[in-house]
Amino acid sequence: MNKDELFIQRCIELALNGAGYVSPNPLVGAIIVHNEKIIGEGWHKKFGESHAEVNAINSVEDKNILSASTLYVNLEPCCHQGKTPACCDLIIKNRFQKVVVGMTDPFEKVLGEGVKKLRAAGIEVVENILQKKCEELNKRFITFHAKKRPYIILKWTQTLDGFIAPDISKMSAEEFENKRHITGFVVQKLVHKWRSEEDAILVGTNTAMHDNPALNVRSWNGKNPARIIIDRNLRLPRSLKIFDQTQPTIIFNYRKKDSTQSNLNFISIDFTKDISSQIIEKLFSLNIQSLIIEGGTKTLETFINSGLWDEAQLFISPKILCDGIKAPTISGKIIHQNKIDGVRLTIYSNHN
Question: Among 27, 158, 170, 268, which is most exposed with the fewest C-beta within 10 angstroms?
Answer without folding.
Answer: 170
